[in-house]
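the three lines:
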Amino acid sequence: MNNLNWYFPKTIKEATDLITKEKVLFHAGGTALLPRNLDKINGFINLSDLPLHYFKKENDTVEFGSMNTYANIVSKIYEIDSENILLKSLQTSADTPLRNRITIGGSIAFAPPWSDIIGALIVLDAKILLSGENNGDFPIEKFLQNPKLKQNSLVTGIKFNLSNWKSFSYRNIRTKKDMPAFHIVAMLKIENEIIQDSKIIITGTVNRFDKIIEVENYLKNRKIDDIEFSQIEKLVDVKFTGKRFSDPEYSQKLVGIELGRGIKKLVRNL
Amino acid sequence: MKNLNTIGKSKKKIDALSLATGSAKFVDDFEIKDPLFVSFLYSPYAHAEIVDIDDENAKKIDGVVDILHYKNVKNQKLHTTAGQGYPEPSPYDTVMFDSKMRYVGDRVATVIAETKQIADNAVKKITVKYNVLKPVFDSEEALEKGAPRLHGDERFVPIPVKYNSENNLAAEVDFAFGDVEKAEKESDFIIEKKYSTHYASHAAIEPHSTISYFDEMGRLVIIASTQVPFHVRRIVSKVLDYPLSKIRVIKPRIGGGFGGKQEVFLEPISAFITIKHKRAVKIILSREEVFQSSRTRHPMKVKLKTAVKNSGEITALSLHALLNTGAYGSHALTIVSNAGSKVLPFFNKVKNISFLGQSAYTNLPVGGAYRGYGATQGYFALNQQVDIITRKLNLDILEYIKKHHIKTGETSEVFKALGEGSEGVAQTIHSCEMDKCIDLGAKEIDWYNKRDKQISLSEDKVRGVGIGFSMQGSGIPLIDMGAASMKMNDDGSFNLFVGATDIGTGSDTILAQIAGEVLGINLDKIIVLSSDTDLTPFDVGAYASSTTYVSGTAVKNCATKIKNQLLKVASNMLDSDEKNLVIGNNKITDETTNKSVTLGEIGEYTLYTKDQFQVQANASYVPQLSPPPFIAQFAEVEVDKRTGEIEIIKFVSAVDCGVALNPKLAEGQIEGATVNGICYALTEEYKFSKSGKMTNKTFNDYKIWTANDMPEMKTIIVESDEETGPFGAKSVGEIGINGPLPAIANAIYDAVGVRLYHAPFTAEKLYKELNKK
Amino acid sequence: MKGTFIINGQSKTMDFNSDERLVISLRNNGYTEVKNGCLEGECGACMILLDDMPVHSCQIFTASVQNKNITTIKGIGDLHLPHIIQESFVEAGAVQCGFCSPGFIIATYALLKKNPNPTENEIKQAIDGNLCRCTGYVKIIDAIKNASKLIQKERVHS
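prediction for all of em together
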C-alpha cells in the first residue's frame, strides 16, 4: 500500500501549480497509471473537475479538451466527419469499457508504442495544447520528440483541421481486442485521379513512429492508374523491436503488404 | 423417446438467476471474519537448489504473522496434487515446500499476514540464495541420457506402473496387438508424421480460490473452488496427517474449471495455516499466478505411423505420444494413456496396433487435467493423418470415416488394453450416430460445394474446409463412483443430495431433471444440495465427462427407490394394488379407479398420520462401461495467402451425446468447448523466455477470444439412445474441444495446400510455410 | 481514505486505500456481485456502470470517482425483481458458471439503453470487453437479441 494524496483542483492554474510543488502525477482516466510502480510519487492531481471535457468546432478547426474519452471523441467526430482518420483509428481501439475511460490527454501524455491515437494526430498535423511551464499550441511531432515539453505542464487539449483527404487506418492485431503490434495511418490528397500529396505514419516501430517518406515521394503527383502496389511494399523499410508479442521480421513483411493494400483499397474505391 | 416430463427439455439452470443477479456466492464472496492473507514467493529460476532463505527482514514487518518454507515446515508428505481416484496413478513427487525449484513459478515460500498488501510487501523482503542448475525444457531432451534430473529417488507412484525419476520419466504405458512390422511390410505405403501441441491455460474466469477456518465446533472447514471436493478432503487429510473426520469441504458456486480445478495445490496450505494459527485464511490467486503456477494443458509430441493399403485400409498403426508434464507429474500417466485409449478405438478395424505413451519431466509449468485430456492431442494427429491418406488416394474423407469408424455392436481391443494405470475395461458400443453426425455437419457447412474448391471471394484470400472427428468417454469404468440421497418433505417436495460437483456445467439442474423425471415432478419440487462433504454422499467429482452418466445413474436409482416407497404408501392410502398405480403430475393415480393422492398428501401422511417414517433413499453407482459420445466438427477457414492470416468463417459441430437431457445445456457444453478449441488452435499459447519464464502471463498477451472474434457457429445435437445411460444419456462435457485443432489444420490445407503439424496456427507460422512453398 | 459514492441510487460512504482499485473497494464494502477475475481490464467480470457508462472497475482508482454514480448488477435487478436482460440470460442458457454474467449483463444494459435494436455486430462489439470461457458466446448473443426484442415489445405496450 502506498499513501497517495489526491488533489481535486477546480482550475487549470491550480492543477499546474500543484504539479510544480509536489511529487505528483496528473490523473485523467487512470488506465495507464494503474500498472505503474507508484512508489516514487506521493499523489495524484485528479483532472476530472477541470473544464477540459469540452468540444469546439470553428469552421474547419476542431478542438477537444483533454478529458474527452475515446468514446466521446468517436461519437462527436462521427457526427461531423464520418470519414475522419482519428475516428477510424480510435473506434475499435482497446474495448468498449476502456474507450469509456481512456482520455486523449492521458493517452497523449503516456503515448505507448501501441498507441492508436498518435499516428492519426500526426497525419492530421494536430496541435497539442499545453498549460503550465510550457504554454501554448505545439505540433504533435514536436511534442513527441521533446519530452521536456511535458515537464510541469498539462495537456489541456488537441486541435486539428478537418480535411477532405482520403484516409485509412490499419491495426495489426491478433484478436479484435488487442494492442496493435503496429498501426498504419495514411491520408491521401487525390485530385483528378492524381495523388497530389500523402502522409503516411506507422506507429509501433523501433522509433515509436516512422514517416514513410519513400512511399509519400513515390506517390507524389502519380496517377492512380500508374501506382504499382508491389513497389509500395518494397519501399517500406521500418524496424520492429519484437519486445512484446510480435515477431519483428514478420511485422516488417506485413507492414508493407498492408500499406500497399490500404492504398489500393483507397484509390480503387474512389 | 416417449412422453417425458423434464428430460429432453431445456429447463432453466436452477442457479442461473442467482448468478445473473450477482447474489450467488463464489469462494471469494464469503464473508470471513478477520482472515489471514497469503502471498507466495515463486522461484525465478527454472531449475535451482535453494541454498538458504533469509526471512528475518520480512518477519519484522508489522502485520506479518508467519513465513513458511522448507526450512520450517517439517515432516512433509510426498503427494500428488492430482484430484483423481485413489490410490492415484500420478507420481507422488510434490511437497508443500521443497528445497528444490523445478520451474519458474515453483513455490519457494508463503508469507501469511493480516492484509494482502502486507503479505505482498513482505514477500519482496525475503532473500533467497539459489544454486542455479541446468534446466531442461524439451520433452525429448529430458529423456536423453545425461539430461538434468528433476526428481530424486524417493519419488514413487502408489500403484504399480512404470516410473523412473532418474531418467525424468514421469510415466510410461504401452501395449500392442497384431504384428505391426509384418503389416507395414505388406502395406502399399506408409505415412509417418510428427505432430505437436502446445501449452495452454484453462483460463477459467474465476481464479483458484480457497478459504479455510475452524467452525464453532472446532471442525476444519474448507471452502474451495474445486472440481473434486471429496478428493480435497482426502488429500488435505493425508498431506497434513489430520483426521478426515474433522475436515469439511464445501464447494460453493464455481467460476469454471475445465480440469484446472481438479488440482489440490492450495487447499493443503490454507488448511495448514488455519491449523497452525487457529485463524481463518483466504487465498485467491492472481491471474498471473493462475497462468504461471497453477496447472496447464500438457504439450504433446505425437509420432504417428500408419501402414496403408491402396484401398485405403489402414493395416497397422503405431502411435508414440510424448507428454511434457512440466515440473510435476500430475495426470502424467492418464493423459498420455488417453491419447491412445480415446483415440485408437475410433478405427477399430485396424488389426495391428502399437502404442507407446511416455511423460517427461521438464523445467516448465505443471501440466494437469484439461478438457479433452489427451484425446485432444491424439486426435490432432489422427485427423490430419486421415486427411493425408485420403488425399493421397483421392478418397472422399467423409465416406472414408463413415466406412472405418467403430459402430454399434462393435468393440475395440484398445478398450480392454488401456485403462487408468492398469488394464482397461472391455466394452461394446451400444450407441453410435457418427454417420449422421458427419452427414448433417457436412450439409450444414456445405462440404461438397466447398471442399477442394479453393473458393476466393476477395483478392489474396482463399477458403477451405476441414473435418475433425472424435470420440470421448463417459466416466472411468470401475473406478468412478457417484452417490445420491433423497428425502421427502411434508408438501411433496424433495431434497436431493449429491456429491456431484456443479462447476458451472449445470449438473445440479441435470440431476434434478433426472430425479424429477422418475418422480413425475417439476424442478421446483426438488431442492438440490451438492458437494458438501458433511452433508452429501460421496462423488469423485466433475471430471472425465462423468457427471451425467455416473452421478446421473446414481440419482436415477435413488429416485427409483423413492418412487417405490411412494407407490407402497399410495397403495395403502388408496387401497389399491401397487401395479395399478402410476406416478406423474405431482400425484399417484390408480389407473383402474382414477382415484389419486397428491405427493403432498403422501408427504403429510408419512410424516404425521400413520406408520410414520421418512421417505428417503440413497444409491451409489459405479459405471461398468464408458460409452463414448461421438462428434464430427467442420471448419471453414479463409486464409490470406500473402500474410498467412487465418479467419474462421464458420464452425459446425454435430454431436451424438446419447439423449440430450437438457438440449440447451448440452449445446452450451459443445459451444464452450469448441470456442476454447478454436482459440487453442489459433491464438492461445504459453510463450517462454530462453530461461523458461512464461512471458505472456496476462489476458492482454494470452489471447482468448471475445464475442467480437466469433465466426458463425452451429451446433447440431444428433440423438442416440444409450441404453446403459440415465434416460439414454452419454457425456458431452469434453468432446467438443477435440475437433477444432485438426478441423482447422485440415481446412488450411484444403485452402492453401500447406500442412501445419505444429500448433498453434499463428499467422507468422503459416506465412513462413507459405513462403517455403 | 473515506469517500462518498452513489451506489445503486443510494449514498454510501466507503473506506479505501488511496491507491485502491474500485473493484476492491466495492467488494470490501459488500458489493461482492462485482467479480474480480484479472485486475488488468481484460476479463470484464468487474464491470459496472459509472455515470451510466460501462467500465472495468479494476481500471479505476476508487479515489478518482468519489461522488459519482455507480451501478452494479444488483442495481439493475435482483433475485426478487430481475431485469428482462437477466431473465433473458437465464432463459437462453447464457449463464453457465455465471462468474462473468454480471459483467455481460451490465454491458448489455448499457448497449440496449443506447441502442434498443442492435445488429449482431453491434452486440458483439458491445460485449468486447467481457470474456466468457464457458459458453462460447453463442447463447449470450442469443440472450441479448432476445432481450432486445422483449424490451422493444415492452415499449410498444407501455
